[in-house]
Amino acid sequence: MFKRLITLSLSLVMASGLLAGCSGSSGGKEPSTAAPQEGENNGGKVTLKVAFFQGGYGDAWFKWLKEEFEKENQNVTVELEGNPKMNDIIQPRIEANTNVPDVVFVDDSLMRKWGPAGKLVDLTDMYNEKLPDGKTIEEKITDSTDKSMDVFGKKYGVPLAQLSQGIIYNVKMFEDNGWNFPSTWEELEQLAEQIKAKGIAPLIYPGQYPYYLFPFGHASYLQYGGPEFIEKLTNPTEADIPGLYEDPAFKRTFTLLDQMFKDKWMLDGTLALNHTESQMEFLRGKAAMILNGAWLENEMKDSIPEGFQMKMMPFPPAKDAVVHEPVLESLTSGFGGIPSVSNNIETAKKFLQFSSTEEANRRFTELTGSSRAFTYSVEGLNISDFTKSAIEATNKYKTVALIYAPQAITDSPGIDAYAAIAARSKTVEEVIQANVKAAPNKWKENQKLINTK
Q: Which region is the signal sequence (predicted)?
């Protein structure tokens, strides 16, 4: 799941930059002033079509939304259309204005593509409207998610979920061996040696997908570069290029990553494993910890051994950290939006507002084992200890999410850098110099893309 999420998050800014230049002459079809009023052709009845990506979150929450929304809106019938390939299926339909639903819940990268192109309703004002529970979306949304919903100063959707990624550890293994999760990197180094002495690998991750190393790297950028470095990385000026990629925060991050592999923290054979294979090895006790996200339990629910307990924690800082705090990465996953050709826009807005209430957020967590991108209480919910730990960690510790401005070079340093260090094919210095050398041309190419009319 994280593979898809990261791939899209790194490409979406380039797509939005391209569209920024042509948003004034959009091919998107705006609703006609002569369009029928909602329900006027059906005796006051409204059929609201809702299409959604049916992935790791399943469809139980959407079925609940349908049932509860229909109870409160007797004139509305909600038709659900869920599909594991909805992100691909919906794109030609939206772009051709053919068989378009009234509400879509798909990858948030598509919001950045469709919004500036006129394909989605601008929901900026809706963020400050009262929800049925008396609060506003603006009051409830988390800070990092609020920024991720911002597209050139407008908001074309509401967030679906918030995914936290950090270190997940085997609780029983830790308890049986008297290990405590470390609060500093130096303590983590000591713990890794104790784990290895037991014949167990300290760590594992889906080695086929270097993206799973990003949460460590992004947390480290904040810890060793501070907020100022994060701002410069995600919102650079031309003067920052190429020197930005020689910043000490990169060297410290890549040095720590290099040390993990050099000191054999990873289970042998990790680089050949995909996400489910690496997660199975963790569940079998072959590794004490795994670099992964809040979706792990739901994704592996049919394979978790009876009595197995796991808990999510942040990445601890080394003593030389600028931000000497544990850090988690927390990303937005998906959005709910309204296609601009819908004839049921007001009902669709009510549906999105209802989906953002405290009750709907709590039910989402209970039914999916994941967190919405809002602040809300999980007290009394029938959820697992792991889900509680993920939500508690997100609320307790500092979080980071790299939200790139259109001009930023989002792939430098990127997957290649992490993959090269993991595979031992390049040194830390070689990775840094490769990015420094490539940065000027990447910057120029990116500006050409942004300015394309």
A: 1-20
